[in-house]
Amino acid sequence: MNDKTNKQPQKLPLSEIRTEISQLDSDLLKLFARRRELSLSVALNKEATLKPIRDQEREKELLELLVDKGAKSGLDAHYVTKLFHAIIEDSLAVQRDYLQSQSNPDSPTQVIKTIAVLGGKGAYSYLAACKHFNASQNTYLGCSTFDKVLKSVEQGKADFGVIPIENTTSGGITEVYDLLLDSKLTIVGEEKYPIKHCLVTNPNTEISNIRKIHAHPEASRQCNKNLPKLVAAEVSLVSSTAEALQLAKKDTSGMVAAIASQQSAEQFGLTVLLKDVANLRENTTRFLVVAREAKKVSRQVTCKTSIAISTGQKPGSLAEVLLVFRDANIPLSKLESRPIAGKPWEQMFYVDLEGNIEAPNVEKALEDISRLCRFMKVLGSYATEDVNATKVSTEALSRTKATSLNQQSLNSKNTPKLADLKTPSTRKSYHLASRDHKMEDSVIEVKGVKIGGNNFTVIAGPCAVESKQQIEQCAKLANETGVSVLRGGCFKPRTSPYSFQGLGFEGLNLLNNAGDHYHLPIITEVMNTEDVREIAEQADMLQIGARNMQNFSLLKSVGQINRPVMLKRGLMASIEELLNAAEYILAQGNMQVFLCERGIRTFETATRNTLDLSAVPLLKQMTHLPIIVDPSHAVGKRELVEPLAKAAKAVGAHGVMIEFHPDPESALSDGPQALKPDQFAHLMHELHS
Ligand code: PEP
Ligand code: MN
Q1: Number of the ligand closest to the Cα of 631
Q2: What's the 374 CA to ligand 1 centre distance in angstroms?
Q3: Percent of the chain's residues with pLDDT above 90
Q4: What's the pLDDT tens digit per position in 114-169?
Q5: What CATH superfamily classification does 3-103 receive?
Q6: Would the CB of 546 count as within 6 Å of ligand 1?
């Protein structure tokens, strides 16, 4: 580079100056390209040595040396650091992309991708997606709601979705948090995009004529203090910035504007009337990139993991979780709470932690946390976009004397830790259900009722909800006799398709009202995946029936919701199969599972099934999950229910589930095993004495 400080600018013909500048620029491009090649070689080298790609000590020394060198050539420190921050950022991106492609050999890198965004071209999500994917040949699928963005990825119409999650001015975007919790997608990346809101209009619009400004609600919120000072117009909220732009474009009155970025204004042929109309100049939105499949993050790349947890209402339960992170030395970059739908005053916490889900310390911390939580969902583990520019010390900025790079110190830093490599797993196939994972008994709590530990809980009610009157009579008796949870089937798994199939959602409504009226939490069976969420909104607990114990998609579905699940042992299922079925639910994040022994098929036909009471003490050794006994379905004969219920208590069951009916003779299902009201009252008395 020319030394400009000591020389007077030469007076040369303009054409000559331009030729030299063009030449210098093309030389610079070649140098940048070569520097990129070298960065890639660094990545190859680091791949072999397992060094992390980010080495901020090295960057700091490099920048300080450059600042000193620059000073000698008359370049000020801020100019030099600005240039090199951009160059270093590019170099890190090149290295990260290379290592990521090596960690995910099966995922194609260069094919054209379809990316779903809110609003489509012109929207901030679109701009953030373009920046993130850095490829112009991608196609973009514009969607009218965040829900549709996620659905189009779930349904395979798009490969990725890009959705905003938080903004530095207006905070977390609550709707997106709720959608992510329910979605099957996983977070595979993030992008921080600086938002520069402008007031944009058709050319030749006068600011004083503007009467209406179209804006996305978030954009409007971010400008609500500043904009009224600049223009006297009403704000009309629209579903996306792209729509705001379309409406401004269509205007012929000269009175309409939109809030959008400069780039998108240009794409729509609109002009920028006012720049920087947001309340705060520093206004950045963090976008999440979601996909159907998780992407492995190379252990050398800075990584973030996002989880959602529900800790229960015990005082200090959140603090216990946070202590796990502290003890594992895992920094948290975010903790956000959201109310849980249908559970007043209960919160779901969203946590972003700095670490890779495959790193042993993170893996262990998450396992520890899963023991403390009722529900835990990993939303994704992904390479973070936080390429915080390395700061040069103020001392270096003010100093002009060159320091030499200490080569030795550079070489000795960041030696890889081979302890990071995983040891082969010796875990049980039902690890989360086992006592290896959790020594102490799990206790499930719902509306003040406890199942597990030292509690003996009675769940009782009719086999099926048949009518308003019937279920109300049952609830009344349950309440009077000290039952803890009211049961009632609404969706009935019947052997014959011609038998009574249950009243469905109508029955659930009746059960719900009866439970409310007599202050009893309710449990009901769910038979298919599509109904899980709707039933969970009304029932306090869900039951998976014996016939569905190995319906794995159903197990996964109930694993994704934050409701206790009673899992009944299958007609022909071994104890190990029962525990593996429970594991399906736990592995999805729902830790509120309890088991139910309800009799198995044997050669004996004198009773409906054979009650396997030995399963109770055995399961209590093998698992921390509560285990209750259902003598009604086990024997199928009302006379035998009481002795077996007592026996269940004697062998240590955490409770029983009993069927009774106001008039068993007229019952639409399982009449022969239903206790009559006085028999049931007698049983309750016996169990409590
Ligand atoms: C029930 O409890 O209503 C039921 C149908 O039981 P199982 O799934 O054990 O047969
Ligand atoms: Mn029944």
Answers
A1: 1
A2: 25
A3: 68
A4: 999 998 787 889 999 988 887 667 889 999 999 999 999 999 999 999 999 998 88
A5: Chorismate mutase (1.20.59.10)
A6: yes
Enumerate the H helices of 73-133 as residue ranges: 77-103, 124-133
Atom of ligand 1 nearest to the CA of 547: 8
Does ligand 1 come within 6 angstroms of the Cβ of 499? Answer: no
Query: What residues are paired with 260 via a beta bridge?
Result: 198
Cα(545) to centroid of ligand 1, in Å? 5
Ligand 1 mean position, distance from CA 546 (Å): 6
CATH superfamily of 458-488+501-687: Aldolase class I (3.20.20.70)
Buried b (16+ CB within 10 A) or exposed e, 536-563: bebbbbbbbbbebbbbeebbbbbbbbbb
If one counts every other C-beta atom within 10 angstroms of the C-beta of residue 247, the result is 17
DSSP reduced 3-state for 20: helix
Ligand 1: which of 543, 544, 635, 668 to mutate, most ligand atoms within 8 Å of CB? 543
Asked if residue 462 has its Cβ within 6 Å of ligand 1, the reply is: no
Angle (deg, nearest 10), helices 575-587 and 615-622:
40
> Do residues 154 and 292 make contact, with C-beta atoms less than 8 angstroms apart?
yes
Strand partners, 450: 445
Contact between 76 and 4 under an 8 Å Cβ cutoff? The reply is: no
Let me know if the fold of 3-103 is the same as that of 198-277.
no
Distance CA 214, CA 258 (A): 5
CB within 8 A of 427, min separation 6: which ones? 436
pLDDT at res. 575: 98
CATH for 198-277 is: 3.40.190.10
How many A from CA of 479 to the centre of ligand 2? 20
Contacts of 638 (CB under 8 A, 6+ apart): 664, 672, 673, 674, 675, 676, 679
Report d(CA 320, CA 559) in Å as an integer. 23
**How do 212-215 and 256-260 pair as beta strands?**
parallel
**Closest listed ligand to the CA of 634:** 1
- Ligand 1 pocket, residue 493 CB under 6 Å: yes
Domain boundaries, the chain: 3-103, 198-277, 458-488+501-687
Q: Which of 366, 265, 270, 342 is nearest to 522 (CA)?
A: 342
Identify the three-state secondary structure at position 332.
strand
Q: Which residues contact 492 (CB under 8 A, 6 or more apart)?
A: 463, 464, 499, 500, 501, 502, 525, 669
Task: Tell me the C-alpha distance between 587 and 437, whole Å.
Answer: 12
**What's the confidence (pLDDT) of residue 2?**
45
Q: Are the beta carbons of 594 and 452 closer than 8 angstroms?
A: yes
SS (H, E, C) 588-613: CCECCEEEEECCECCCCCCCCCECCC
| Cβ-Cβ contacts under 8 Å for 673 (sequence gap 6 or more) | 463, 608, 632, 633, 635, 636, 637, 638, 641, 659
What is the Å distance from ligand 2's center to 660 Cα?
10
Average pLDDT over residues 438-446: 95
Instruction: Compute the C-alpha angle 508/512/513, nearest 5°.
Output: 120
Q: Is 569 in the pocket of ligand 1 (CB under 6 A)?
A: no
Best residue among 492, 542, 543, 633 to mutate for probing ligand 1's pocket (most ligand atoms within 8 Å of CB) is: 633
